C-alpha cells in the first residue's frame, strides 16, 4: 500500500519500511520540515512507485519480506532512470547489518532504529545538499558543452588552415582540462570533509568541526567563483554581458568590498585602502565594478607572499574614477604583459599557484563596457600595479535614458 500525503514544498522523499509505525514516524518528521513524503510498505510497491515518479531521495529498510532493501537498491542502481537517486538505508540496532554491503550496492548512508530526529534530518539534508550541488554542476557542464559546441560550429565556418584547427583543438582540450581540475579539487574537499564529519562526528571537537565547515565553505566559494568567471566570459564573448549603470557611492563601495575580501582571506597579505576624493555619487555598473576590483584584488593577494601589503587607492579627478591596486608579488614579465588579457593565458612564473587565466579577460571586457582603460606596470620579483580609469558618468547611460 502506498500513501501520498500532500505537502507543498521542497524535495520529494520515499520512505520504504514494512513497519507502519516507522513509516508514520518518519513521514511526520520529514513532512514537518516541508519535504514531500511518500510511503511504501514493501520493496515491490516501492519499485512501482519509483518507476512512475522518481523521488529525490529514498529511505530504505533493509530487512523486508520478499524483496529486501539490498535487492531494491541493486535494481535501482541498474536503471539509468534511478541510478543517481541517493539511498539511505534503515536498520535496527539489534539487526545483523552489513555496512560494507550497504555501500557496495549503492547506498550513500544509513540510519538506525530507534530514530534520533536530529540525526535523521541532518543525514537527509546532507545527501540532498550533495544532490543539489551535483545537479547544478551537471546543468552548468551541459551549458558549457553547448557553448563550446556552438563556438566550434561557428569557427568551423571560417577555418582557413590546419594550423587554425589544431589551435582550436588545443584550446578546447585545455579548457576541459582546466575546468575539470579546478572543479575536482574543491569538490573533493567538500565531499571528503563532509564524509569525515559524518563518520567521526562524535570524536571531533567543536573547533575541528568549525574548521572543516570553513574548508567546505571556502571550496564552495572557489567553485562558485569559477562558474561565475566561465559564465561571464561566455556572456562577454557572445555580446550578452549586460551593462546597467546606477547611482553609486564609489568610496563606500570600495570600503565594503575590501572588508568582504578581508573576511574571506584573513591570513593573507594585508589590504590597505585609501581614497583621495570628495565625490559622493557616480554612475557605474555595480556588478561589473565588483568583478573588476574583486579579480584584481584577488590576484594581488594570490600572487603576493604572506605578510606583504596590497595597496588599493581610489582617486576621482577629471570626471574619472581611477583605481590603483599595487602588490609586492611575483611580478609579470614583459612577454606575458603582451598577452595579459587573452583567455586562459597565465604567466610563465606562476608555478603551482592555481588559476584559470580567465579573471583578467573578464576585467578587460568589464572595463571596456564602461568605456574605460586599464594599464599595468610590473617588475619580476618586485610587484605589480594595475590602474583602471572609468568615466564617472558613462555617455551611453544618458543616451539610453533619452531613448526611453
Strand percent estimate: 15-25%
The average pLDDT is 82
Say which CATH homologous superfamily of the largest domain is assigned.
Histidine kinase-like ATPase, C-terminal domain
H and E string: EEHEHEHEHEHHHEHEEHEEHHEEH
Total of DSSP H or I helical runs spanning 4+ residues: 12
Approximate shape:
elongated
Pairing-aware structural class of the strands and helices? alpha/beta
- Helix amount, in percent? 40-55%
At CATH level 2, the architecture of the largest domain is 2-Layer Sandwich
Main sheet properties:
6 strands, mixed
CATH class of the largest domain: Alpha Beta
| CATH topology (level 3) name of the largest domain | Heat Shock Protein 90
Unreliable spans are 1-8, 394-404
- Rg, rounded, reads 27 Å
Count the strands?
Answer: 13
Give the N-terminus to C-terminus distance in angstroms.
62 Å
Kindly give the count of domains.
3
Strand neighbour order, sheet with most strands: 1-3-2-4-5-6
Q: How would you explain this protein's 3D organization?
A:
It is found in: Cell membrane; Membrane raft. Keywords: ATP-binding, Cell membrane, Kinase, Membrane, Nucleotide-binding, Phosphoprotein, Transferase, Two-component regulatory system. It holds the Pfam family HisKA. This is histidine kinase. The protein is of the alpha/beta class. The chain folds into three domains: 2-115, Response regulator (Rossmann fold); 124-237, Helix Hairpins; 246-403, Histidine kinase-like ATPase, C-terminal domain (Heat Shock Protein 90, 2-Layer Sandwich). It contains twelve helices and 13 strands. It has a six-stranded mixed sheet with strand order 1-3-2-4-5-6, sandwiched between helices. Helix 1 links the parallel strand 2 (12-16) and strand 3 (36-40). Helix 7 (206-237) crosses helix 11 (359-369). It is elongated. Mean pLDDT is 82; it is low at 1-8 and 394-404.
Amino acid at each position: 500500500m502506498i500513501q501520498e500525503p500532500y505537502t507543498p514544498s521542497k524535495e520529494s522523499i520515499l520512505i520504504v519500511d514494512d513497519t507502519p509505525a516507522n513509516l508514520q514516524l518518519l513521514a511526520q518528521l520529514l513532512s514537518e520540515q516541508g519535504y514531500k513524503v511518500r510511503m511504501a510498505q514493501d520493496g515491490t510497491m516501492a519499485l512501482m512507485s519509483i518507476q512512475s515518479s522518481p523521488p529525490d531521495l529514498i529511505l530504505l529498510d533493509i530487512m523486508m519480506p520478499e524483496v529486501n532493501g539490498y535487492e531494491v537498491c541493486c535494481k535501482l542502481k541498474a536503471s539509468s532512470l534511478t541510478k543517481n537517486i541517493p539511498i539511505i538505508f534503515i536498520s535496527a540496532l539489534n539487526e545483523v547489518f552489513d555496512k560494507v554491503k550497504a555501500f557496495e550496492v549503492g547506498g550513500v548512508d544509513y540510519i538506525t532504529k530507534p530514530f534520533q530526529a536530529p540525526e535523521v534530518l541532518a543525514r537527509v539534508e546532507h545527501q540532498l545538499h550533495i544532490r543539489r550541488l551535483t545537479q547544478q554542476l551537471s546543468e552548468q557542464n551541459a551549458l558549457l558543452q553547448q557553448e563550446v559546441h556552438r563556438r566550434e560550429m561557428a569557427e568551423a565556418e571560417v577555418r582557413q588552415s590546419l594550423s587554425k584547427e589544431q589551435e582550436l583543438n588545443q584550446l578546447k582540450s585545455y579548457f576541459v582540462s582546466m575546468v575539470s581540475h579546478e572543479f575536482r579539487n574543491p569538490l573533493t574537499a567538500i565531499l571528503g570533509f563532509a564524509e569525515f564529519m559524518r563518520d567521526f562526528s562524535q570524536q571531533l571537537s567543536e573547533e575541528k568541526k568549525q574548521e572543516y565547515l570553513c574548508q567546505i565553505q571556502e571550496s564552495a566559494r572557489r567553485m562558485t567563483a569559477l562558474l561565475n568567471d566561465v559564465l561571464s566570459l561566455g556572456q562577454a564573448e557572445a555580446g550578452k554581458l549586460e551593462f546597467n549603470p546606477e547611482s553609486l557611492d564609489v568610496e563606500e563601495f570600495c570600503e565594503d568590498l575590501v572588508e568582504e575580501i578581508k573576511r574571506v582571506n584573513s591570513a593573507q597579505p594585508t589590504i590597505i585602502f585609501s581614497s583621495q576624493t570628495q565625490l559622493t555619487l557616480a554612475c557605474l555598473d555595480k556588478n561589473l565594478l565588483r568583478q573588476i576590483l574583486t579579480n584584481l584584488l584577488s590576484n594581488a593577494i594570490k600572487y603576493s607572499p604572506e605578510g606583504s601589503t596590497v595597496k588599493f587607492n581610489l582617486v576621482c579627478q577629471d570626471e574619472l574614477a581611477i583605481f590603483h591596486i599595487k602588490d609586492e608579488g611575483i611580478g609579470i614579465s614583459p612577454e606575458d604583459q603582451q598577452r595579459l588579457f587573452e583567455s586562459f593565458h597565465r604567466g610563465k612564473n606562476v608555478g603551482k599557484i592555481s588559476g584559470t587565466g580567465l579573471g583578467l579577460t573578464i576585467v578587460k571586457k568589464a572595463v571596456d563596457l564602461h568605456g574605460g582603460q586599464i594599464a599595468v606596470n610590473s617588475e619580476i620579483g618586485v610587484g605589480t600595479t594595475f590602474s583602471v580609469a572609468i568615466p564617472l558618468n558613462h555617455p551611453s547611460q544618458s543616451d539610453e535614458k533619452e531613448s526611453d
